[in-house]
Amino acid sequence: MTSPRRADPRTILVVGGGTAGCALAALLRKAGLAVDMVEAMADWNVYGSGITLQGNALRVLREIGVWEQVRARGYSTDGVSITTPDGTVLFTQQDAHTGGEDLPATLGMQRPALQEILTEAVRAAGTGVRLGLTVEELTQDQDGVQVVFSDGSTGRYDLVAAADGISSSTRTMIGITEKPVPTGMGIWRTPAPRPAEVTRTHLAYGGPAFIAGFCPTSETTLYAYLVEPNRDRAGIDPATYAEEMRKLAAGYGGHWDAIRDSITDSSQINYTWFDRHLVEGDWHRGRVVLVGDAAHGCPPTIAQGAAMSLEDASVLAELLAGADTWDDALLTAYRDRRMPRVRMVVDASVQIGQWQLDGVRDADVPALMARTMTVLKELP
Questions:
Q1: pLDDT tens-digit profile of 243-286?
Q2: Average pLDDT over residues 300-312
Q3: Cα 360 from Cα 160, distance rounded (Å)
Q4: Mean pLDDT of all residues in the chain?
Q5: Considering the domain 182-274 in this protein, what is its CATH number?
């Protein structure tokens, strides 16, 4: 599997237009490579109430060139306030500046706002984008990948990057069998108006839920979440999501009183399970390579899922742009460079949740977080 540098740009197909796919496409275009993208959703939208981005995620967004837009539409914070269920603040812990001292420690923003910024960057970079399209067939040889799309069209590429999420069909198509495994927790999320006094994340451990938290996402908004033992999603009528979340939130006071009153629109509420996912072997087969959630995923207990996907995109783009030859050694180097850091984040994220599931009251969560963040301060 070799690809000597040619006068014409080598071509890459990015499958999936979420955080990892958009970041990779934008970075590859900055490097002068020819990039096409296909995204299954015809409106290219990402649903969700909010996202927490720590400094190492912001560092990649700055590399892409969208940091100023992200800063303008998000809400920068410097710490987390730990509270009792009634809202009393016990202490405030300062967040680590994992992206360097010149970036905020943490920034919250509305998830659709981040998607809009990234998709605009992808288009502005000159990526060939086709929406409402999936990959139906991949045929590889030593020189490239022949792709058949869901509309019957075809294309040939030097490399295919699978950024189609934790349930990646491309991953299955190339014979990688690892799949996400539920950890036993589920999370309710909703957007809500931000009280002026809420200037950082608040987390309550205990009460009716394992975790009750909220994070500012703009000058006027926040997103709130409640973590509980996972339920059979098929047994919950989506029309009752607002009622279900209000019931669970009834055990919390302080700012939760106003947040709870705002939970009225079930269509704005998202309920998902926590999963652990990590492809242990190679992250590629021939000329098809996994990026982001297609390769790994974890509960949001340390808010590093998006950061790991963004770092994947940065590292893979750096390696592809700097290499005369795209071969197994290069794609293995990508996986080897990412694996220790990703495994640390996945394991730490799952461990925090498992301590709660097991009722471990003396778990040293701050020490685990401190060790993890110390590593994340280093460049990926």
A1: 999 999 999 999 999 999 999 999 999 999 999 999 999 999 99
A2: 97
A3: 44
A4: 95
A5: 3.30.9.30
- Give the number of other CB atoms < 10 A from CB of residue 59: 21
- Between strands 154-157 and 159-162, the pairing is unpaired
Whether 125 contacts 30, CB under 8 Å:
yes
Q: Is the pLDDT of residue 37 over 80?
A: yes
Cα 274–Cα 41–Cα 52 angle in degrees, nearest 5: 40
Q: Are the folds of 11-76+111-180+277-376 and 182-274 the same?
A: no
pLDDT of residue 8: 53
Domain ranges of the chain: 11-76+111-180+277-376, 182-274
State mean pLDDT over 45-54.
88
Token pair belonging to 6: 């040619």
**Tokens for 301?**
């207990």
Contact 263, 311 (CB under 8 A): no
Determine the pLDDT at residue 233.
Answer: 85
Q: What is the pLDDT of residues 128-138, one digit of tens each?
A: 999 999 999 99
Structure tokens at 229: 């033992």
What is the SS3 assignment for the chain? CCCCCCCCCCEEEEECCCHHHHHHHHHHHHCCCEEEEEECCCCCCCCCCCEEEEHHHHHHHHHHCCHHHHHHHCEEECEEEEECCCCCEEEEEECCCCCCCCCCCEEEECHHHHHHHHHHHHHHCCCEEEECCCEEEEEEECCEEEEEECCCCEEEECEEEECCCCCCHHHHHCCCCCCCEEEEEEEEEEEEECCCCCCCEEEEECCCCCEEEEEECCCCEEEEEEEEECCCHHHCCHHHHHHHHHHHHCCCCCCHHHHHHHCCCHHHCEEEEEEEEECCCCCEECCEEECHHHCEECCHHHCCHHHHHHHHHHHHHHHHHHCCCCCHHHHHHHHHHHHHHHHHHHHHHHHHHHHHHHCCCCCCHHHHHHHHHHHHCCCC
For the entire predicted model, the pTM comes to 0.96
Residue 91 has pLDDT above 80, yes or no: yes
Whether the pLDDT of residue 7 is over 70: the answer is no
For domain 11-76+111-180+277-376, the CATH architecture is 3-Layer(bba) Sandwich (3.50)
